[in-house]
Design a protein that fits this description.
By secondary structure, this protein is α+β, with helices and mostly antiparallel strands. 16% of the residues lie in helices and 34% in strands. The strands form 2 sheets. Strands 6-3-2-1-9 form a 5-stranded antiparallel sheet, with no helix packed on it. The chain has a 4-stranded antiparallel sheet with strand order 5-4-7-8, with no helix packed on it.
């Protein structure tokens, strides 16, 4: 009897734990005016990310263009509100050619800050060592893709049917 109760309890706890696991989607729009302090950079960017709360895995694609020079670094920072600065939470790869697609495993504290809306992403250049463009990560209510799909190629046009000869 006790064994059956323990198994039932373990099963219930497992269901509760898996029921609370979710996949959350985030987006950030990066620009110079969002940096702290703001920059006059013409650069822009976008981050699309998915957080698997069961594995604490953040999968993301960062795109950017129009920077004053090559990207020298990119990071997730937190915890911070949109108007504040914070330390690096997660470095974004070594190959900073846009687009950058990667994964990171977060700590429980990092995941808590991200879910609370206290993370931002920025891209650095030689001209803007503290960050050239920045965007606050915001939760997206719709299921957003991690990466934008490539546009579909149009199907080749079918050859035209030969015209029927005209009868006079």
């Amino acid at each position: 009897m006790l064994r059956r109760a323990l198994i039932a309890s373990a099963f219930t706890i497992g269901l509760i734990g898996s029921a609370s696991a979710a996949t959350l989607h985030y987006q950030a729009t990066l620009n110079g005016k969002s940096e702290v302090p703001a920059t006059t950079s013409p650069g822009t960017g976008e981050l699309l990310a998915t957080l698997d709360t069961a594995t604490k895995t953040l999968t993301y694609t960062l795109t950017f263009q129009g920077l004053t020079g090559p990207a020298t670094a990119a990071h997730f920072h937190g915890p911070a509100a949109a108007s504040a600065a914070a330390g690096v939470a997660v470095a974004i790869g070594k190959d900073l050619a846009s687009p950058v697609t990667a994964k990171a495993t977060l700590t429980a504290a990092q995941m808590k800050d991200l879910v609370a809306g206290k993370w931002y992403v920025n891209v650095h250049t030689a001209a803007n060592k503290g960050g050239e463009i920045r965007g606050q990560l915001v939760k997206v209510t719709d299921a957003a893709p991690v990466a934008k799909p490539a546009p579909a190629k149009p199907a080749p046009a079918a050859p035209a049917a030969p015209a029927a000869p005209m009868k006079h």
